[in-house]
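Bench log, entry 3. Co-assembly request; chain sequences pasted below exactly as received.
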Amino acid sequence: MNIILIAMVIALLIPIYTAWHDEGIWQKMLALASISIKASIMILVISVLRDDWMLGVAGVISLSVGNASLMLLAHIMKRLREQQL
Amino acid sequence: MIDWLSYSFLGAGIFLWFWGTFPLLGNRSVLFKLHGLSVSDTLGSMSVVVGLLLKIPGEWPLLLLAILSLAIWNTMLGYVLAYCSSRGRSDE
Amino acid sequence: MNDLYLPVIVALLPLVACMLVAQRNPYHALVIRGVLGAVATLVYALLGAADVALTEALVGTMLAITLYAIAVRSSLVLHLGVLKDESSGIEHFQERLKDIFSQWHLRLELTLYSDASELHQALIHKEVHLTCIRSKSTENERQVYHARTRISRIYDILRKELSGPEVTVTRVTVPTSGKKPS
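Structure output for the full assembly:
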């Protein structure tokens, strides 16, 4: 399980690098989507690893809230761009 | 036996994550990256959760909820991101 | 409990925080704030605080980003005052201003006034940041734009970016003992 979590951290580092390095706002949004899904799945893995129900609930809620907030943010960004241009 | 099956599911999920995330580093268009990322992230995460489900069946309601929310929300998020980013581009 | 992954994941948090501080574009910083929220949720859950992780996911990631997006949009705005009958002929100059201030992530917003004294009063009373008046030059028939501002930073930017015979930039000093303090 240790190796699996380390591999997940490496997979998490790639979109973090992209979010830091890439210029376009939509590339950053993509990286953010990837990071939020991966972090939630990692919380789920940890909850199973420790056999902890509370962590599992937190992971599932953050998974669904992260997705919802991303959609909200994407729509706000789109509206801002339309008014700006 | 079940242990091996769960580990292979976990490994397959992490492999899918890497496979979908590496195109982010290239210079392709946003929609191409979005396609690869949404498919591989959803399938990889579902595979990881199935692996966890095989490992500890006691938490099945939580993990089932995770799979369902992944399947529904992630497809919707893919559509929303594609719609917003393509509309934002045509305005520029 | 000698978990190897614990310090690796905790080290992600200061990494992302440094990335957030290094961002210049406010909208990019918002996205990185989302990344920071996700990583912070992960770290809190890893250290066993499920309630803190839940709060971070709900408030820090969802509410704060949405509110900040609206706050950034409504605060990064430059109010440009123009005369009502000149507003159609000024579009070329307005495009140039928009190009200049988009480097600084500022948005341009137009306010129309009916005559020149009202425009000047608006500038004095801090309703607009920048006013623009068009006039014909006498010796050659070219358009001349007079831009007036009361903010020294905008004056510096305009002096640096708008160099040419067709534009004059002046700075108006506002008396501080007016009716409206600051």
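Chain C touches chain A at residues 3-5, 8-9, 12, 15-16, 19, 27-28, 30-32, 34-35, 38-39, 41-42, 45-46, 48, 50-51, 53-54, 57-58, 61-62, 65-66, 69-70, 73, 107 (CB under 8 Å). Helices of chain C lie at 5-22, 26-46, 50-75, 91-102, 116-124, 152-161.
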